[in-house]
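Supplementary Methods, section 5.1.

A reviewer requested that the exact input to the structure prediction be made available. We therefore reproduce it here, unchanged from the version used in the analyses.
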Amino acid sequence: MKKILNVILLIVLTASLLSAQTDRSRKIFVAGFYNLENLFDTYDDPAKNDAEFLPDGANQWTEVKYQKKLHNMATVIKSMAQTNGRFHTLLGVSEVENRLVLEDLVSQPEIAAANYQIVHYDGPDTRGVDVALLYRPDNFEFIDSESIPFDFNSSRIEFAMDGPDRVKFKTRDILMVHGLLDGEEFAVYVAHLPSRIGGKGWDLRSRGAEIIYEHACTMMEKHPGIKIIVMGDMNDNPTDRSMTEFMHGKENPQDVGKSDFFSPFLSMLKAGYGSLAYQGTWNIYDIIMVNEALLNAPDGGLKIRPVGKKGFYGVVYKKQFMITQTGQYKGTPFRTFSNGSFIGGYSDHFPTYIVLEK
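The structure derived from this sequence is encoded token-by-token as follows.
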């Protein structure tokens, strides 16, 4: 009996050692998105609509509050790194005023070790906010990038706006970053599609999704086999037309064709997950999708993998310190402002991410 137990113990130990060796041999990378909720500096920029984010503005946006905001954002990014055992390789962000706030963010002591590099363009948005990509140069080799403007050049969408309103309309550009992740060719899109204020703008968000999709198809034609990640605050759920019809987002991996995108947060939304709450309803506007080449990569290539015990391919990241603990908004993201007052929170969105592995 003792010999049998010793044999069983040896088998278990051997299996554990082999599993540990396999884990060490795997290459794992994290790619995610975080809406930073109005990361503005305290300086007046005549080219930006930043009046409320000045020391004498409506939000009384002082240096102390700005530094608190930077610390909070860095704390969340560090927390995700501790959970994953590594900093994000790719982190898309939105609602940033300029490059300065990004430089201040990546130099925060909590995340300085990641040595994040920045890809950012000043865009035309009327609120003065942009998107950007932070990347780790030890994992990702930058090749080139493009800031893709919004336009109304669609043959499929009938827009509610007339000509004069279209001329005046300004929104965030879409960022595309082209590079090599562990030697494999990638294109990463970061977007913040037009607002849902007043329950409107489905046509604008659908056009934004269409612009991303058409550009991604061009990249796939020019660079056969390229792997693509699309991320952003889409101001729509993964179940909405912009994401299912115009971004060709599919819920189930087996339904993803060569020209489709796998939409891992679609099934998570149906299961009750949310990255932000509005009027008591949870939504996932912070969406990440991948193309078929990244979903179905052959052995030895980077591919998206399930995360956690429930088998979902995405994560909505939230810890207790990021959640409102009391009051009317209990359980929702602990945000920077509430009812016009600074409450010292983090963001009105939870970040989302996916994990890639080879």
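Residues 297 and 303 are 6 Å apart (CA to CA). These observations are discussed further in the main text.
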